Amino acid sequence: MIRNLIFDLGDVIIPIDLTAPIRNFAIMADVSEEEVRALWKQHDFINHYETGLIDDSAFRVHVRQLLKNDAWADEVIDTAWNTVLLDLPVERIERIKELKKEYRLFLLSNTSPIHIRRVNQVLAGMGQPTLEELFERVFYSYDVQLAKPSPAIYNHVLAEVGINAEETAFFDDNAANITAAKALGIQAVHVQPPKTILDYLQDM
């Protein structure tokens, strides 16, 4: 019997476009998208940011240095970084609120503080609860300094909230994350377009 539901955030709750920040930074810096992508990969600072090894300020410093523009204000960088986030379908939030009556709900996301602040701003603008209010517990990669698909992050969540893997369903759009969760006995569900999370929650 499933008693617990763990949700990924990007492309599960909120649609995302992973190419948008690269595209916007390339336009701002007047360089090619390929150059920006290569710099991201070479310096790996985004992974460091999302696992809490560097903070917001250090992240912005890296962006300014790599793209050679010290004049960009924090807000300019944050806005470009947040273009990854697309419109949030309110019906997904409403469905999650309904599920709270029957299940323990958790959020597990590889993400950054800038993104989480923006998602919560969007939710507030919609008259909806924040992520921290919507779920019993939220687990952000930058807080726990672990990231999916490492088995350690799943074990951390299970231990922290005292739940059993076999009684837990996990919804994620990334195949590697699904494989890792299944290996631990979690009932992992791969959310794939054209279906949305609502399709996978119909029978719950």
UniProtKB/TrEMBL annotation:
It holds the Pfam family Hydrolase. CDD domains: HAD_sEH-N_like. Gene3D superfamilies: HAD superfamily/HAD-like, Putative phosphatase, domain 2. NCBIfam families: HAD-SF-IA-v3. This is HAD family phosphatase.
